[in-house]
Amino acid sequence: MVQKIEHNDLAWRGNSPVSTAFDDVYYSADNGLEETKHVFLHGIGAPDVWMGRDHYVIAETGFGTGLNFLATWRAFKESGAKGRLTFISAEGFPLTEDALRSAHETFPEIATYSQQLCAAWPPASDGFHPRIFEDGRITLLLLFGDAPNALSRLNAKVDAWFLDGFAPAKNPAMWSAEILDQVARLAKPGTKLATFTAAGFVRRGLSERGFEIVKAPGYGRKRERLIGEAQAPLPLTQCTHSTVPEWATLPPQSEGPFVVVGAGVAGRSVAYALARRGKAVTLLHDPASPSASTVPAAILAPRFILGEQSHADFFTSAYAFALVHPSFAGHWADVASVDLLTKSDAARERYSKLVAHLNWSTDWLTWDGETLHLPRGGAIATQSALNALTADIDMRAFRIDALEQVGSIWRLTDHTTGESIEAAHVVLATGVSTVGVDQSLSKPEIRPNKGQVELLRDDELGHAPPVSLNYGGYLTAATAGIRTLGSTFEKIVEVRERDYAPNDTSRIAIEEQFSAATGLRIPATAHRASWAGVRATTADHMPYVGALYNTNQILRQYAALAKDAKTVKLGPSEPLSGISVLTGLGAKGFQYGPILGEFLAASLCGDPLPLPEDHIAALHPLRQVIKAIKRSN
């Protein structure tokens, strides 16, 4: 279950912002930026440590006001580094956006960086929150929630650590053995470390975990601080992961070149994520193959879960990330926000509990007892957003008639043109067509689901509210004078050409659902056109992301699970070389696509995963196969 996150209130002590929760300053009254430069950047040897590197990863305990991140971002950019920087930071008590702005006002030299950070600031929602800046060269990965738990869910290898929780006497939990265990687990030989404290138990704890630690001059009134380097971080058994089953392996890393098959939001999202990591990517699309992503507009509103689901935070993380994805900027509907309308006393009770549990600030969520208002949600113009994702990517019309592995290379052939393309790694992102790309490959089960929507003229809708509405069905806000009303959910067994043809029966049902929820009628003069497509859905409503496997081999390897579902030590699953899948996004493609594209690209490139490790199994292409084995006893 998603844990409730409490905001940290901000007070001031002279020129220093103070946490009311811990009664300690966020940064020095002398000069917070200079303190960061002296203690942390100089402490790890920046900028020299990242020069000449393709990718440098810094992790931090305690994001606070974000001053360390902003100073590092500025230093990285001004150093002229050609690679990428990922900055990971755990924070249990995030500030509000307004508090962040206030804390940064003292430093006009970082104003442009602060504005971008604040504009991308996530809600106080438990889980991982990736953010992208500088045309993809800077990634911030915020881990909101209990720090030891958040760090234990992180899959990454860190090049440098900033230990910057409040003073050990004020916040001892941030300097606990559990935190230091995670610092060691995520380090590697040569990992740098810097911290403002010189506390003996911190020095001893780090030394015991494989770091060589020395004292260095402190900043301002602090006489000493600690710097160090990991020599041989201990493989500490107490902080190994038990949340990832052995069958849930990640795809092998690849240098590419990559071919992504499918030009819907899934394929374009992973192509974008790979390209921003400097990989050579070709995107293939079959003009004759319809895509559910061509729906005229999409509405973004999170799937809120109050139940005990370990992956519940995926839905809010995906939602918050999609809202600030760089490629989506400028493609939103004319009027922002989404109103979730209640239809029953049970729904009102659920929303009341949800608002109390989430504790989001009013710029993210408000509740008036009847309507749940999402000021940051909205509708997006799908085609222009898709084009923006792949504006700089090689995209080709290509019908795949053959997909074969030749040694370590995959060859894709279009027999109509005689053209062939080779790649070190292929990503299949073809929605309901995924199962038909090559029948010799074992692919996860996809359930096709037809959906129809209606295109309406905004100026003919009369009293309909201008914002997007969600009531089981939905009405998007206007994009270029057109609003989209939807949608049907029709289960189909086999996809046929007729499933892409709209019909009057579905149109009438859609309009009647809208009228029942709002009390408004759709004038005949408002109707412009109908659209129909087929979504790729899954049995458990979670997408499939990861490598493909030989199913027969998996059935043999994990057969013992049929007798005892708790059987372990059957060995890790062995993925097929050089081929992955991203599919099953259902009706949430524009909400799930961006973060899942990052997740798959990160796993293929060896980057820190932008989602917790326990989500690997929840998204894994093998999960339904493993469930079937366990249920076969």
Helix content: 25-40%
CATH C-level class of the largest domain is Alpha Beta
- C-alpha Rg, in Å? 25 Å
Q: Which class of secondary structure composition applies to the elements?
A: alpha/beta
- Please describe the biggest sheet, giving its number of strands, its sense, and whether it closes into a barrel: 9 strands, mixed
The termini sit apart by 30 Å
Coarse morphology = globular
Total number of strands: 31
What's the name of the CATH homologous superfamily of the largest domain?
Vaccinia Virus protein VP39
**Count, helices:** 16
Describe the structure.
- The structure is a single chain.
- The protein contains 16 helices and 31 strands.
- By secondary structure, the protein is of the alpha/beta class.
- It folds into three domains: 230 residues, Vaccinia Virus protein VP39 (Rossmann fold); 186 residues, FAD/NAD(P)-binding domain; 174 residues, D-Amino Acid Oxidase, subunit A, domain 2 (D-Amino Acid Oxidase, Chain A, domain 2, 2-Layer Sandwich).
- The strands form six sheets. Strands 15, 16, 17, 24, 25, 26, 27, 28 and 29 form a nine-stranded mixed sheet that branches. An eight-stranded mixed sheet has the order 6-7-5-4-8-9-11-10, with helices on both faces.
- A hairpin with a 4-residue loop joins strand 2 and strand 3.
- Helix 1 crosses helix 2, helix 8 runs parallel beside helix 14 and helix 9 crosses helix 14.
- The mean pLDDT is 89.
